Amino acid sequence: MKRTTKWLAGLAAAVLSSSIAFAQNAPIKIGAVLSATGPASFLGDPEKKTLEMYVAEINAKGGINGQQIKLFVYDDGGDPNQARSFATRLLEEDKVDALLAGSTTATTMAIIPLAEENQVPLINFAGAVQAVFPAKKWNFKTPHTDLMACEKIFEDLKKRSLTKIAMISGTDAFGKSMRDQCMTVNQKYGIEVLHEETYGPRDSDMTPQLTNIKSKAGVQAVVNPGFGQGPAIVTRNYRQLAVPHPLYQSHGVGSKEFIQLAGPAAEGVRLPAAALLVAEKLPDNDPQKKVVVDYKKMYEAKTGQPVSTFGGHMYDGLMILVEAIGRAKSVDKAKVRDEIEKTKGLIGTGGVVNMSPTDHLGLDLTAFRMLEIKNGDWTLMQ
Fold it and tell me: Where is the Leucine-binding protein domain (predicted)?
């Protein structure tokens, strides 16, 4: 009897040891749902490229705590229904340990409830404030919010003594959200909105709306909440009509693609954006300079394409997740979630991240830089 008991105890210890070893050697499964193709591909494509090249680098260096990362990447084409379907597959079939998902506001809002229901950490890349505020337990995000963009633009307008504006906003989820956020803080900054216009995601000519703005007496500047091709069309039409006021775009156009689409008409346009777009132009004592320069060099060398803030948001999300898993010494979802929430002083491409139980973004207004397009390139205004 004693011999049998010892044998069973030995067997149990061996099984436990094997289980621990298997868990330690099992890959860390990270799932991504991104808009790599379709109308939002300018967001999802650099996100996907960034994720794949940095995961390859991390794995080549031994992974996280000795465990390799296994990626599961799906392309939702910018469709919220597809985003929800793919996120469901990642959670129920692929059994991922964490999600880096949601290129647009619409696709992200389709994914967040699934992450909450399944209690899986999610870091998203949407621009709108509702993608992170109010804070939900399992959901985090890296891009600056549309509310922050409004505040940064209004700060700059006040510095230029421009207090009466018109707005022309996209009717997509991001454009509508940013318009609404701007209207919640305009009085705080002493900004009066004299006139408003909108355009749809498939509109190819905004001349009628801009003609109305041009004829509106008292307007001193124009703000365009939007992303995708719409803001480039607005910019071209704006210059064709010779609207005499300064034009502000949102952080939703933070890539060289916008300058290429808008052409010479982009000259003089201002927008709030991440330090990444002016990486080499930052002063040497800027804490972000090394991070953004290194990321820019690697991305452009690997892809042959200009860097964008959107790929930078993925870099930040991946680094936050990798460091959280490293600190947790586990892929236990609750432990990883807790460590993400404890992120402090992480220097990313979007700013220095300091999260808390009530702030799952961790960036303040100083993370935004005000840029102006001059001679076909980004110029740092402050």
Answer: 27-362
pLDDT at 255: 87
User: Is the confidence at residue 23, as pLDDT, over 90?
Assistant: no
Which residue do the tokens 């705080």 mark? 188
Residue 73: what are its φ and ψ, rounded to 5°? -120, 125
pLDDT tens figures, 80-95: 999 999 999 999 999 9
